[in-house]
Inverse folding.
C-alpha cells in the first residue's frame, strides 16, 4: 500500500518468538530475512492478506497488525499491456476490506488484537485513540510520521501505545526491536487481564 519496509512486523515476530510464542508472519511485498522460528505466509494483495488472516484467526491468541494495507484497489484491472496510443487511462478505484476491523468484529473475547496507526502531526495520538475505539481494538500503536528519522523505511520508531483499558505509554525514539518489546509487554499485560496464559 505504501513504502513501508515491513521492519516493524519483522521485529514484532522476532521478539514474540524470543518470548516463546508460536509465530506466524504474514508478509506482503517485502524482501526481509525471515525471523528464526516464525512460520511465514506470503501474500500480495489486500484480499490475500484478508484471507490469510481469516484462516489463522481461530488458532491465534494475538494479532499484531502492522501491515500497511492499501485502502483502495483498481476496480477494473486488465491482464494485458496498456498501449500508450489508447490515451491516458482513467483509473477507477474501489475500497479494499478493512481487515483489522473485520477481525476485531469476529474475534473471541480472549484474543488480543493490536492495530497500528501512522498519523500526521500534533493530533496523531487523538486520531489513534479514535481508531482504537472505532475498530474495537485492545491496543493501538501510534506513530507520528511527520517526524524525521522514524517510521517508514527507518530502523527506528517513536510511538505511543494506547490501550482500551485507558493506558497511554510513550516509547521514546528507539530501534524497532525495542519498540516491539514495549508492544509485547502491553500484549502480555492485556492477555493476563483477560485471564489468558502465556505457556
Ligand atoms: N488496516 C487493515 N485493512 C485495511 C486498512 C488498514 O487491516 N484495509 C489496518 C492497518 O494494518 C492498521 C490499522 O488498520 O493496523 C490502521 O490503518 P490505517 O490505514 O491507519 O487506518 P484506516 O482505517 O485506513 O484510516 P485512514 O487511512 O483514514 O487514516
Amino acid at each position: 500500500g505504501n513504502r513501508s519496509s515491513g521492519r516493524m512486523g519483522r521485529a514484532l515476530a522476532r521478539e514474540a518468538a524470543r518470548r516463546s510464542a508460536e509465530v506466524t508472519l504474514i508478509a506482503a511485498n517485502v524482501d526481509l530475512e525471515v525471523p528464526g522460528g516464525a512460520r511465514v505466509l506470503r501474500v500480495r494483495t489486500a484480499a490475500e492478506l484478508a484471507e490469510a488472516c481469516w484462516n489463522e484467526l481461530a488458532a491465534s491468541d494475538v494479532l499484531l497488525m502492522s501491515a500497511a494495507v492499501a485502502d483502495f484497489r483498481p476496480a477494473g484491472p486488465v491482464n494485458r499491456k496498456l498501449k500508450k496510443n489508447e490515451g491516458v487511462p482513467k483509473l477507477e478505484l474501489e475500497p479494499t476490506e478493512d481487515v483489522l476491523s473485520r477481525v476485531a468484529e469476529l474475534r473471541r473475547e480472549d484474543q488480543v488484537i493490536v492495530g497500528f496507526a501512522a498519523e500526521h502531526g500534533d493530533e496523531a495520538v487523538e486520531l489513534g485513540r479514535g481508531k482504537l475505539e472505532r475498530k474495537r481494538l485492545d491496543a493501538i500503536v501510534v506513530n507520528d510520521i511527520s517526524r524525521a528519522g522514524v517510521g517508514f523505511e527507518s530502523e527506528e520508531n517513536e510511538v505511543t501505545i494506547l490501550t482500551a483499558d485507558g493506558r497511554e505509554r510513550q516509547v521514546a525514539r528507539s530501534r524497532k526491536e525495542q519498540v516491539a518489546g514495549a508492544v509485547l509487554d502491553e500484549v502480555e499485560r492485556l492477555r493476563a487481564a483477560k485471564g489468558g496464559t502465556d505457556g
Residues 176-193 form the longest helix (18 residues). Strands lie at 24-28, 39-43, 62-65, 72-74, 93-95, 112-119, 139-144, 156-163, 168-175.
